Amino acid sequence: MYVEMTDETGKVPENIIEQTEKILAFAAEKLKLKDATEMAVTFVDNARSHELNLEYRDTDRSTDVISLEYKPDESEIFFDEEMEIPEELLNEMDPFIGELFISIDKAVEQAADYGHSIEREYGWLAVHGFLHINGYDHYTPEEEAEMFGLQEEILTAYGLTR
């Protein structure tokens, strides 16, 4: 999997950027995503997170991670109108699955609040957002159990334990 990494803040240590790239590739293997899969991660501050949260989620506050899932637009592909296009074919034609915006301010705050390392917090945020762009959610207790269970399984297998 290819992950385009951007640090808008200029403050994210290189080891965190490398870890984020590696843990997302690890999570992609766990979900059996194609090697050609692509996504983007941008590290932002709380002010930018607030702007993005307002723009995309209509929520007037900063947040720790914003996940924007990308779905290919079938209307941009010229096929016979009556032809159904399988999801797998769309994914092969456009391997970009989405993007994450991770607030470095929230990562630092939450690592301190939860009493674990900054590496664990960045890993948690990256995997959490990654699962969202791959269709997982936590609106119901059942969804939450599935998503958080898988998230913890990935983090533990990668070596980012509490």
Automatic annotation (TrEMBL):
Task performed by this protein: Single strand-specific metallo-endoribonuclease involved in late-stage 70S ribosome quality control and in maturation of the 3' terminus of the 16S rRNA.
Co-factor binding comment: Binds 1 zinc ion.
UniProtKB keywords: Cytoplasm, Endonuclease, Hydrolase, Metal-binding, Nuclease, Ribosome biogenesis, rRNA processing, Zinc
Q: Would you identify the family this protein belongs to, as annotated? A: Belongs to the endoribonuclease YbeY family.
Which metal ions or organic cofactors does this protein require, according to UniProt?
Zn(2+)
Q: Which Pfam families match?
A: YbeY
Any GO CC annotation of this UniProt entry:
cytoplasm
The protein's GO terms of the molecular function aspect are: metalloendopeptidase activity; RNA endonuclease activity; zinc ion binding
Instruction: Tell me the protein's name.
Output: Endoribonuclease YbeY
Q: What is its EC number?
A: 3.1.-.-
Q: Which InterPro entries match?
A: MetalPrtase_cat_dom_sf_prd (IPR023091), YbeY (IPR002036), YbeY_CS (IPR020549)
Q: Give the gene symbol.
A: ybeY
Entry keyword annotation includes Iron: no
TM regions (residue ranges): none
Where Zn(2+) binds, per the record, is at H128, H132, H138
Name the major location.
cytoplasm
Its GO biological process annotations read: rRNA processing
Q: Where in the cell is it found?
A: Cytoplasm
